[in-house]
Design goal:
Elements lengths: L8 H8 L4 H5 L7 H9 L2 E8 L2 E8 L6 E4 L2 E6 L7 H8 L2 E7 L6 E11 L2 H6 L9 E13 L2 H6 L16 H8 L6 H14 L3
Helix pairs in contact: 7-8
Length: 205
């Protein structure tokens, strides 16, 4: 009902009240030693970008520490092999702003980094971040604008790291079924599902 839509910052502030001091002082414009430790412990992040055609949020993952902290204002993120949609990179070409949400297995708190990125194909950087002799296609050079930790409430409510809450994959549609239905059976779902495990392992890098 439209009369219940919130349309002003003043109304939001009245609903939620003032932010606590801790939620304000934790935000820095650089990576200090504490935030560096969190980034270096993380094997996974969600990368958010925006461009002319809209928003994108996509996963990035590798062994922990895969995001290199060059200095207090600079991060390097190798862009590993994927599906070649390059939605995030297309957005960054038009708008360099990005946001990253780092997760650390077993830890409730997450880390948020906002900044601006350049896409690089510097041969020295590509070689530096090669894995098993396979270089990333590109690397993102990220200039940090703000960084702060997010409290654990969301992860605690989700019980995210509790193995007893893991979902039985067989209770959900397989990726092959999703593709077959979305493509009106142009893609053979059974073949896709059968070949997927080997394809993932053979194309990680």
């Amino acid at each position: 009902m439209h009369q219940y839509h919130v349309t002003s910052a003043e109304t939001l502030e009245a609903i939620y009240g003032e932010a606590s001091e801790a939620s304000i002082v934790k935000e820095l414009d650089h990576i200090d030693a504490n935030y560096r430790a969190l980034i270096e412990a993380s094997p996974f992040l969600a990368l958010a970008t925006v461009g002319p055609t809209g928003l994108d949020c996509s996963p990035r993952g590798d062994p922990r520490g895969f995001v290199h902290v060059v200095d207090e204002k600079t991060l390097i993120l190798p862009d590993r092999r994927g599906n070649n949609r390059i939605d995030s990179l297309r957005n960054l070409m038009a708008n360099p702003q990005l946001a990253m949400l780092f997760l650390i297995p077993g830890m409730g708190e997450t880390l948020r980094v906002n900044g601006r990125a350049r896409i690089s194909i510097d041969p020295v950087l590509l070689q530096r971040y090669a894995v098993d002799g396979k270089e990333p296609r590109t690397v993102l050079e990220v200039t940090v604008d703000t960084v702060f930790f997010q409290c654990a409430r969301a992860v605690v409510r989700a019980d995210l790291w509790n193995p007893a809450k893991y979902v039985d994959r067989s209770t959900l549609p397989s990726l092959g079924k999703i593709l077959a239905d979305a493509s009106a059976s142009r893609i053979d779902g059974e073949t896709y599902d059968r070949e997927l495990p080997n394809r993932v392992q053979s194309t990680l890098y």
